[in-house]
């Protein structure tokens, strides 16, 4: 349950972050000479799509679906990578979301139990 709540939180925050980057490129400061420097609209779409999928996976976790656990670990990992690449634009925000992604992965992995029939 803890991981599902955090996953939905990161998803909603990713959706808001994506909408902000798509709607107004002036909100985020542009960084010069950054290896992963994409157009902010492209970053906005990346965060928006990732946020929507994270929310959908969290719904599966709330319902107790087995596929949602593996999907949550995978997408939390992708979210962590996306937020790591987002560091030059919003460092504290990206670090916060990166830390939450790590907690999600930990929570999903630590509560994984295999039934021995």
TrEMBL record:
Q: Which InterPro entries match?
A: DUF7144
List keywords of the entry alphabetically: Membrane, Transmembrane, Transmembrane helix
- The protein's superkingdom reads Bacteria
Q: Does the keyword Nucleotide-binding apply?
A: no
The transmembrane residues are 42-62, 67-86, 92-112
Ranges for domain DUF7144: 1-112
Q: Name one Pfam family in it.
A: DUF7144
Name of the molecule in the record: DUF7144 domain-containing protein
């Amino acid at each position: 349950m803890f991981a599902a709540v955090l996953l939905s939180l990161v998803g909603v925050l990713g959706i808001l972050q994506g909408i902000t980057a798509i709607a107004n490129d002036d909100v985020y400061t542009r960084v010069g000479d950054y290896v992963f420097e994409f157009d902010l609209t492209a970053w906005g779409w990346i965060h928006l799509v990732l946020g929507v999928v994270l929310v959908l996976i969290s719904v599966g976790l709330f319902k107790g679906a087995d596929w949602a656990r593996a999907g949550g670990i995978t997408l939390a990992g992708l979210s962590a990578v996306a937020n790591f690449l987002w560091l030059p634009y919003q460092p504290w925000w990206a670090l916060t979301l990166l830390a939450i992604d790590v907690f999600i992965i930990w929570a999903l992995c630590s509560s994984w139990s295999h039934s021995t029939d």
